[in-house]
Structure formats: structure tokens, C-alpha cells
Amino acid sequence: MASSRSGWAPPVYSLALSVLVLGPLLGPGYLLLRDAVSTPRSYFTESALGIGDAAARAVPQDALLAAVSTVVDGGIVVKVILLLALSMVGWGAAQLAHTLLPTARTPALLVASTVAIWNPYVAERLLQGHWSLLVGYAALPWTVVAVVTLRRTGRWAWLAVCFAAAGLTPTGAILAVVCGFAACACVVPARRNYALTGAIALAASAPWLVATAMSGSGATGTDPTGVAAFAARAEPGLGTLGSLAGLGGIWNSDAVPATRTSLFALLGTALLLVVIAGGLVPLWRRRRNRVIVALAVLAAVAVVGPALGATGPGIELGEWASAEVPGAGLLRDAQKWVALAMPFYALAAAAGVMWAGARLRTAWLPALAAMLAVVIALPDLGWGVGGQLKPVDYPSGWAAVAETLDGEQGDVAVLPAGMFRIFPYSGDAPVLDPAPRLLPLDVLQTGELLVAGGSVRGEGTRAETVEQVLLTGGSATQLAALGVGWVLLERTTPGEMGDSGRTLQQLEQIFEDDDLALYRVPGDIPDERASALPVLLAHLVWAVLLVGGLGLAIGRRHKP
Predict the structure, then answer these.
(1) Which end of the chain has fewer surrounding CB within 10 Å, N or C?
(2) Which DSSP state fits 455?
(3) From residue 408, how far is each of 65, 392, 520 by CA, in Å?
């Protein structure tokens, strides 16, 4: 750890910077923006456990929220996790700099924290609603520190915590495992430690691996059109490679700060890269430290790889893999992998400040200049990414519908068709339908994703069939045979209704207000659910790894 005099500065500074970033989101209400859906209460449905038709993309995230929201409001839980993630990535970047650059002092450490928190990757993922992915992002610098700790002391508890925290989502788990093994290859010569790292990685990934195996969603390919749709995107004046080098380039041009939609993006990227470039020569002189070399190589691959994936041949290869290789769909949205460049970027920024400080005989002047440059590079990240992150309140009808469905049987179909909504209370951006997380029964979702110029087909085959029954005005008997016991009409959002009115006339209306209408499907509803025991055990393994690892790490640190 850092010295006692400077050790408090990075965590306090990172917390303050994180509060400045999140701003209005920390007020009363719920996060509901594009892919982010927080709710007062979540439930242990098959979808939450990842064993429905759709891919297990939010496992074990949804199960964790279902458990914790029984005692704490789910909206508060998401905000606390997000605030912790941003604070911890800043602190972790400082700790990484102190571990690999032992002479680094407070000014250099704070620059590392600034680079890790204040960058386009954080801004764009916040606006896309990928709050849980940022937990995996936050684990990256800590993972490298944990691997070094494993090499020096043989203690594995912090590595378990890092892998388990990152494992809140499948993508986060992969990010941490890749970063961990890249560092492990350089500092851990013992085969036993390789095996231990691999075992921890499997345990951390157990929920989504077991869920995928049980649901079969990973056994077939995904829609190849998603490769081009989710490829990294060139921002103004930068090209795809330049956008990625500046930690930007997300596929969704709407999920970006305003300053990344003009030529200011070129200036911002140049400022960030100048701060990082200042440390390249000092780090080259430390190339005997193989961890630094590994992080540099990882950063290069993380930038160049997605850029190549956005070329014609790269897209063709990705389309082939998506159609033919099970699980390859997880690799799309290629820009998310540029997170792997962040540890080296933060380290280089700190090294540059150390080098300049040695020549100026004060590190604070170059540190303040570097921090100011990073903030100027993205001025609208502050206060909720220019005010775009704002909490919302759900109409009371949602709670009434959830109470009605509590303890009932059958799955819920939704109207209008599709997974995305634009409610009067949610703003102008399309948001994921909150019904699957607000209601205590499984809500059928096709998994179809809306992208610019079209859509990408999902994995929810039964949901697609149910949707077609509704849109073509099918019978209540057809719905019942498909396991549908309820139909929820969300009245205040645009969307395709087809001839569903004919179907609704055959159903019994149970609840109605200005926002929602709930219908019961008559008849016997077949209940053919698979046993959830294996995936529950996998979630338990993950939870024990997280809580047990944290307990061991803290206990050893305070042991007299």
C-alpha cells in the first residue's frame, strides 16, 4: 500500500471525482437510461438467474439485485455500486502506479486516478447504461495489483475479490481474467499459481457459465448483423483507431457526450494522449519490469484489435464467428474491450508526471497540468455527463401490477412488441423495458436489440412466438399453451400493436390505469420449468468467493 501520508489522498480524491461525475443521479429516483434499469425491488425469476430463452448477459447481476433489494431499495443499491465502481477504479489506478512505480508520490498517483475516472470510456458506458460493466472496468488495476501480491506473498484473497467483483457480468469477468493472466504470465512462474488463478476465474464465472449451459443460449450462433452494428465507430476527426486510442468509439452515436460529436473530440483525444505519451520513455526505461511490458502490449491489442474488427475483413470474420462459433456473440460491441488499455494509460500518465517532476523539482505543477488537461479533454463528463444522467420515478401502477402478480403462475407477455420503451417519465432515449425487473414473474423478452438502421435478432425463440401470436390476433388458447398466463399492456410508450386488440378481447382485464393494463389468460397454464438448483449453486459459489475473499483479505491486513 501507499505510504500513510499519501495513502488517504487517492481514495478521497477518487470519491470526490466520482461524485462530480454522477452528480444528479445520486438524488432520489431510479436509473433508467438505455440498457440501465434499476427498480425498487427485483425478483428471483428464471430470467434473473439466466436460465430463460435469452442469453445470460446480466448474470449474476440480476440475482444480486434480487437478493439485496429485499432489504434495501434497489435504486439505492445500483447507485452505491456505481459510485463504488468509479471510486475504486481511481483508487486502484493509484495503487497500481504505486505498486509498479514504487517511488511515485501523491501528485503522480492522483493523475493516475484522474485518467482512470475521467475519460470517454466511462462517459459512453454510463450513457449506454452499462453500470455493471464499469464494475469490471474498476477491477482491472486491482487485478494487476492482486497478481503481483500473489507472486510476492502467495496470498490469493484479493485476486478472488477482483475476479468475483468483475464477474458481476460475463464481459466484466472476461476483462478481469484477460488482464489477470496477462500479468500472471509475467510475474507468476509457479504452475501452482497458474492453476489457482484459473480455478478462481472459473469460480467467479460460474453463474453465467452454468446458466448458459442450462439454457442452451450459447450453443448456437447469434445474428451476424450484430457484428457490423456493434463495431467500434469513428468519432469526428479521429477515425476508428484514433477514437479507440482516446478510449472512445462506442457503437451508439447517441450515447456520447456532446463534446465527442464535434471536432472537439480531436482536441480532447490529443490532450489525453499527450498526458499518456509523457510517460512512455520513462516506462521504456523500466522495461525489465515485465508487468509493465505486459500492460503495454495489452493496451496496444485492446486499441488495435477493435479497430481491425471494424474493417471490412474484420466484420466478415466476426460475422462468420457469430454464426458458427457458440458464444462468439459475447465478443461483439468490440469497443468495450478497449477498457484493457486503461491500466497502462493510468500508469503512463503517472510515470510522465514523475519524470517531469524530477526535472522541475516539484511534481505538483506537472500533475496539476496533467489533471487539468484530462478534464478539459472531456469537460461534459461532469455532473451526470452534462446532465444526461438523471433519476426517474416510476408511476404507481407498476407497484400495483407487481402486487397483483405476486404468487401467481404463468409468464408475462408485454405489449407493444419489442424490448425498448420511450415513456413520458424516462426521457427521449429508448430504454429497456423495466417490466422484467419490476415484476415477480418471468417476462418474456425476444432479445431483439435496436440499432441505427435496423435491429439485431435475439435468442428468445419462445418470446418471438408469443409476440407473433399477439401481433396476429391469436387466441387465448395459443397463449396458454405457450405458458403465458398474463399480458401487460404498457400504454404510454410507442410501439407495434398489430392485431393484438383481438387477442386482448379474449382475456380478463385485472388491472387498469392511465399507464398500464393487466390481462389474465384463461385456461390451464403448463409449468415446464427446469430445475434452478445448479445455477443457484453456481451463484452461491460466486457469492462465497466474493464475500469470503473479502473477509480473508481484510482479516489478514488487520492481523497483528
Answers:
(1) C
(2) E
(3) 21, 28, 10
